Sequence to fold (407 residues):
Amino acid sequence: MQLETSVKIILDKPIRCHEIFKPNHNEVMRLVLTNGVAGVGKTFLVKKFALDWVDGLENQDISVVVLLSFRELNVIRDEQHSLLSLLLTFYPKLEKFPAEKLSVCRILLIFDGLDESRFSLDFSNSQLLTDVTQKSTVNVLLVNLIKGNLLPSATIWIISRPAAANQIHPSCVDRVTEVRGFADAKKKEYFWKRFSDEELSSRIISHIWTSRSLQIMCGIPVFCWITATVLEHMLNTEKGQELPKTMTDMYSHFMLVETEVRTKKYHEGHERSQQKPMETYGEVLLMLGRLAFEQLEKGNIIFYEEDVEACGLDVKEASVYAGVCTEIFKKQSVISQKQVYCFVHLSVQEYLAAVYIIDCFTNRNTQVLKNFLTEHNGDSPLEDFLKNPETPKEPTGLHRKQYRNHP
Fold:
């Protein structure tokens, strides 16, 4: 719905990526805030900008580009750093760049994924910092950078999902931009280019246009990939079966494809005795569902090893579950080789969280349901909920509340 609303807004002025810091008239463009819904291509935009700069194609008036992600900053959030030592932690080669040059050259600091932050930005009571060698916590450094107390000559670019963007005080922002994903023509172009079989592309596009929710969601590139994966598999191997028209149906089929097809490919060449039974993959999905649910309740969309292991998943064993844990559940190494995990898209996390709640309901996991009902349905007794003949066999999903880090 956010995507559809954005597409209908036509009064805003389009802006090309490499012109994002070019001022209008005599304006100062110190801090730019770019937002967009999950999976719409914000990080891809940042990497494209940085690559064009490295290749000498655009923005050559910028001397230094420093890209920092909040998923990495989370790892050192409790450590004491100066701005200089923070930069050297992630980019040791900047050691050859004297501290006094930071204030005279044009440096661009990009902070990607504000919605993934596990610390808060306090613009009212933070310690004042003006020296790049003065130490404090990461959140204090960021507040002083954003306010212009620290390194006022720097240009700052912050990337966020909409619900987290309000953490940045409006008085500090010079320009707001939005990544809106694929328009209808680009959606169709994606599927025409994805498949060499024109008939297959045509059937997939026709089906997507029969469902408003699928058509809207295909504005997100990663959802185009999920949709293409599911529909290609079903049209080629499950002919005659009704194609999914809802988000729930699409993700249900996506899980089946990823567990059945991907694991089959992974085990080709292995002894049959070494293969995991499908029941095991079901257990893994439920563990992932528990992780998805518990972290949504905390407002987290990025997880660390301790979060994953707390839900019964062995992070070392996870690589064995090829289909489940490479396409649905992503792993990335950050600073000091610490592992960071996330679902391929926020809506996949929400889907698995709902599956987990359905399983708790089916198997009468009363403690989880009792906690869930207490928070979302007030003081309604659990016994009444379980005995109520009108209780749906499949709850429609989680009540969406405003999390600090995402809607």
